[in-house]
Specification:
The complex is a heterodimer.
Chain A (H helix, E strand, L loop, with lengths): L1 H8 L4 H15 L3 H14 L14 H8 L2 H23 L1 H5 L25 H8 L7 H5 L3 H13 L18 H4 L17 H4 L14
Helix pairs in contact in A: 1-2, 2-3, 7-9
Chain B lengths: L3 E5 L5 E5 H4 L3 H9 L3 E3 L5 H18 L5 H10 L13 H10 L4 H14 L2 H15 L4 H8 L7 H10 L1 H4 L3
Parallel strand pairs in B: 1-3
Antiparallel strand pairs in B: 1-2
Helix pairs in contact in B: 3-6, 6-7
């Protein structure tokens, strides 16, 4: 909006402001497209031969809206993204340093500041999201790894694991071994009770509520 | 005639993608609504952007077709994990493609995590986070340290104190 104000109000110095804008946008976005577009608008406005049938009409305000290069608008819209980008640029800055190194085991440049492409270099919210996807049983290992991970694990516990049921993996494993399937401290059953009712006697008092679709 | 969006990576390379591909990123969708179709992404390198675009292209093609009843049933059956918040990818071929896609080393994977998080591409974020989590699951502390190069910055006293405070975690071990 500020850009529009400058252009509209200072009519005599219009070309001056546009030119200064061009020079600054050149720094941001070194692409000729923007300059060509501005020049076209300027020439049309000055009633010289228009180089292309641009949609610029006499309403300069309206046309300037669409002709503003991404530079100006983007600067404004990044104000909403600004916070996000600042947070991420801290960790994203580290990534170019590690660049093409393939093995995570390379211990080059391992000061506490530069943990490039490191699990702990990830933003905390991302780290917590990752930890929310591990199993309950992994939490004890994670707590003792390092201070950063311990903190992230605590947050994950409060946010997620406190409300989720641990998934038991034991059912799928060790089916041959009878001991594993039973509860570890269950009372010993000497006599297995059997039902005194038989299906035949029940048939007079039972009815099928939901007919099976398999038959259809 | 698909509308094209231009993405400019951190090192200045430009990539033109179809609108529906780029719009998988919520951030890009919002920017395009406000401004021009050229979107600079200074925090994303070309290498990572290429991979992200590849993922979006693959998933845009799938998303454009409505889910058939059989595939939605498969989706319901396959979502057995109560912990996962994500919608499982229903197409097995796509899932296989995804699994191939994330066969990367840790540092490349983290690059994609950061980029996908920044661009807010829900499915990709879930995929890579799940992949990292899988690399953590079931491992002992020493193994995890080795895999991710994590330094143990606890003193023995601190470690002991942590164990005591968090006895809930150590009950089953």
């Amino acid at each position: 909006m500020i850009y529009l104000g400058l252009v509209v109000n200072k009519d005599s110095g219009r070309s001056l402001y546009l030119k200064s804008y061009i020079s600054s946008s050149w720094l941001l976005f070194p692409r000729r497209v923007y300059i060509a577009r501005i020049e076209t608008k300027m020439s049309a406005r000055d009633s010289q031969e228009a180089e292309s049938p641009s949609p610029v009409c006499s309403n300069y305000l309206g046309s300037a809206e669409e002709s503003i290069p991404a530079g100006v608008k983007f600067v404004r819209s990044t104000s909403t993204l600004g916070r996000k980008r600042v947070v991420l640029s801290k960790s994203a800055d580290f990534s170019p340093h590690c660049g093409s190194s393939s093995s995570p085991k390379k211990l080059c440049r391992r000061s506490t500041m530069e943990r490039s492409n490191h699990l702990e270099a990830l933003p905390l919210d991302v780290l917590v999201k990752i930890l929310c996807k591990v199993d309950h049983s992994d939490l004890s290992q994670l707590l003792l790894l390092s201070k950063t991970l311990s903190q992230a694990t605590s947050i994950a516990k409060e946010m997620h694991f406190a409300f989720a049921t641990p998934i038991s993996n034991r059912v799928s494993k060790e089916d041959a071994d009878g001991h594993e399937e039973e509860a570890p401290n269950a009372p010993i059953r000497h006599r297995v009770t059997r039902s005194r009712l038989s299906a035949l006697s029940l048939s007079s008092i039972t009815a099928v509520l939901f007919p099976s679709r398999v038959d259809q | 005639m698909a509308k094209m969006i231009k993405l400019v990576s951190g090192d200045g390379a430009e990539f033109e993608v179809e609108e529906e591909v780029a719009f998988q990123s919520k951030i890009i969708k919002d920017i395009v609504a406000d401004a021009d179709d050229v979107i600079p992404l200074p925090t994303v390198s070309s290498k990572v952007l290429i991979q992200v675009i590849e993922y979006c292209r693959k998933h845009a093609a799938v998303n454009s077709f409505p889910l058939s009843p059989s595939s939605s049933a498969a989706a319901a059956a396959s979502s057995s994990s109560s912990i996962s918040y994500s919608k499982p990818v229903s197409d097995p071929a796509l899932r296989a493609w995804d699994n191939e896609f994330v066969k990367l080393n840790n540092s490349s994977l983290f690059d994609i995590v950061i980029a996908a998080n920044y661009l807010d591409i829900e499915e990709l974020v879930d995929l890579v986070l799940e992949t990292v989590a899988d690399r953590i699951k079931g491992k002992q502390a020493q193994e995890i340290r080795r895999q991710f190069n994590i330094e143990n910055d606890f003193t023995p006293e601190e470690e002991e104190a942590l164990r005591r405070e968090n006895s809930w975690a150590f009950q089953n071990n």
